[in-house]
């Protein structure tokens, strides 16, 4: 037994000495053969400008230094990959059978450049027959065959050949470690300057890949949960749930230098990835305790995302300062259509404008609803083809004339005449209803009542040309202010409209009743905006009183208003004749604006 033990010890010493000896041998003379094999397999040039040697290890380890791999011939850079050091550890037992099996891969200080051409072809696609055959035969690799991976200081740059946009990622650490039944994956670094981290156990069973206890952190915001990727069907299917105590969207909306210039385009012309909706199916429930955008915070956010055959349906429920908001976003990748159905009641509109840093000169709550749909390849295309409607009705509040003076002093005087309670006025009511067809929104109801006058109006908003054209008609409650009773035209680009007196303007379809109450588009256009009961902002007295007073007036646009009754604190039941016909069953509220 002693002899056998000594013999084994001698063999081990010989092997160790042999491995150590080989580690000092420069295998550079084999570099040309390796480079030629890579050229044949991929059609690209592989260069090993540094040492090629055997690393010191109980298992064979091939180490190459100063390695580079050529880019596609159409690429914008000569090299697709550069690395200071690449080490491949090979399993011993498979070598005895003539097989090569990687045990581990180490990569240090690597720079990888990934890009597509104008047609969307990637530089990772190789044009040789051998490479195509390998791709077809490869299938989905089993996790059991994935080697341990240790990558440090990895830079990845992605350039989109269509949009010319460039995304950069710097990873300090990327590791994949084998564990029973799967692997444990870890990523740490940043993408476009925002810190990112990923940590998860990854398992595979019958074609399904499961991520258990997955943790994703981006720009200081984290989400956790479980996800399953099913690969056995015609397309990948993602299911699971993700939760986050707080998710901050602000770092992702900084863009490339701020907002649009004054008077510039509002809607982006960049293509949307709608055609990619058909690449996979998904059923993922997302829950966020606090969703932050700048100073705006939505709480108790629930977003079940369902994607099937290129059709996306994502009904969102959340709360802004305790007020529920419900919105459903739907999209169809095949037809490139997008739709929005949103509504909320008694939203603090003044505080929202303040949080969005639009203005702090308004204090009012509002009922808001929108049902819109459009089609196109970009936000601009969708806006230019938009169909649907938007409605708004406020309760009572206050407004500062400086808010309107941002656009024009004439507009400020038309809404709040100077000399009446200084620059601040009591806002009695504001009403707005726009119908959109082919990207053009036509006003069906537009009125603002303050303690000094009522301003009605009409006109259009063209989202295709991004132009606005409204004509406002002020009606002072005090006869001494009749000097401001000239129409005001608001027109110009959406991003920078202007306003001025229009002494010759005629407000088509707008009338002002003698009792100091406005009718815009007929009372039938106003009353459906009212909220039922006491839950809505519009039912708090302002717009409800305006509508009730209008109903009692016998003068309308082209006809009489009858049978409406009192609407204070709620909506009227009955029928009212306006410009276009009869309105029945008034009082369905903001929740029933669209036939729901």
UniProtKB/TrEMBL annotation:
Superkingdom of origin: Bacteria
Location of the AsmA domain: 7-160, 265-444
Gene Ontology CC annotations of this record: plasma membrane
Xref: InterPro entries: AsmA, AsmA-related
One biological process term in Gene Ontology: regulation of protein targeting to membrane
Family matches, as PANTHER family: DUF748 DOMAIN-CONTAINING PROTEIN, PROTEIN ASMA
Name assigned to this protein: AsmA family protein
Lineage of source species: Bacteria, Pseudomonadati, Pseudomonadota, Alphaproteobacteria, Hyphomicrobiales
């Amino acid at each position: 037994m002693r002899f056998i033990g000594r013999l084994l010890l001698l063999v081990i010493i010989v092997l160790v000495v042999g491995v150590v000896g080989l580690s000092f041998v420069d295998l550079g003379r084999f570099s040309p053969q390796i480079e030629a094999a890579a050229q044949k397999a991929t059609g690209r040039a592989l260069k090993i400008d540094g040492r090629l040697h055997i690393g010191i290890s109980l298992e064979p380890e091939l180490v190459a230094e100063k390695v580079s791999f050529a880019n596609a011939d159409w690429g914008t850079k000569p090299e697709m990959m550069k690395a200071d050091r690449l080490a491949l550890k090979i399993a011993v037992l498979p070598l005895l059978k003539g097989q090569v099996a990687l045990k581990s891969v180490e990569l240090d200080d690597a720079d990888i450049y990934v890009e597509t051409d104008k047609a969307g072809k990637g530089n990772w696609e190789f044009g040789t027959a051998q490479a195509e055959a390998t791709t077809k035969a490869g299938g989905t690799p089993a996790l059991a065959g994935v080697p341990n991976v240790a990558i440090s200081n990895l830079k990845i740059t992605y350039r989109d050949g269509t949009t010319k946009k460039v995304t950069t990622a710097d990873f300090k650490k990327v590791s994949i470690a084998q564990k029973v039944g799967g692997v444990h994956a870890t990523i740490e670094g940043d993408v476009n300057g925002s810190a990112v981290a990923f940590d998860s156990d990854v398992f595979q069973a019958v074609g399904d890949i499961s991520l258990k206890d997955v943790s994703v952190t981006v720009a200081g915001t984290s989400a956790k949960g479980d996800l399953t990727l099913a690969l056995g069907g015609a397309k990948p299917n993602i299911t699971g749930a993700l939760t986050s105590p707080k998710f901050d969207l602000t770092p992702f909306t900084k863009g490339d230098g701020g907002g649009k210039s004054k008077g510039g385009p509002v809607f982006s012309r960049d293509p949307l990835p709608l055609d990619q909706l058909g690449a996979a199916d998904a059923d993922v429930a997302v829950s966020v305790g606090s969703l932050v955008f700048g100073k705006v915070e939505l709480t108790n956010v629930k977003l079940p995302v369902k994607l099937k055959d290129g059709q996306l349906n994502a009904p969102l429920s959340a709360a802004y300062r305790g007020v529920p908001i419900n919105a459903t976003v739907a999209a169809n990748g095949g037809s490139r259509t997008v739709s929005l159905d949103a509504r909320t009641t008694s939203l603090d509109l003044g505080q929202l404008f303040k949080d969005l840093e639009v203005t702090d000169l308004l204090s009012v709550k509002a009922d808001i609803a929108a049902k819109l749909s459009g089609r196109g390849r970009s936000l601009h295309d969708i806006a230019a083809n938009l169909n649907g409607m938007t409605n708004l009705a406020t309760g009572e509040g206050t407004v500062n004339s400086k808010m309107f003076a941002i656009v024009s002093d004439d507009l400020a005087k038309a809404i709040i005449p100077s000399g009446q309670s200084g620059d601040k006025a009591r806002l009695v009511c504001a009403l707005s209803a726009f119908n959109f067809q082919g990207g053009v929104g036509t006003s069906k109801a537009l009125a603002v009542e303050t303690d000094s006058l009522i301003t009605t109006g009409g006109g259009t908003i063209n989202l295709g040309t991004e132009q606005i054209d409204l004509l406002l008609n002020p009606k002072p409650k005090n006869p001494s202010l009749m000097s401001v009773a000239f129409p005001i035209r608001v027109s110009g680009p959406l991003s920078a409209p202007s306003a001025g007196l229009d002494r010759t303007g005629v407000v088509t379809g707008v009338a002002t009743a003698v009792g100091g109450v406005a009718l815009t588009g007929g009372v039938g256009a106003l009353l459906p905006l009212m909220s039922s009961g006491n839950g809505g902002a519009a039912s708090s007295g302002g717009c409800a009183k305006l509508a009730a007073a209008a109903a009692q007036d016998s003068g309308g646009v082209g006809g009489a208003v009858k049978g409406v009754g009192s609407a204070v604190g709620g909506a009227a039941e009955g029928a009212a004749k306006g410009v276009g016909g009869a309105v029945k069953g008034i009082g369905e509220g903001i929740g029933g604006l669209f036939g729901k």
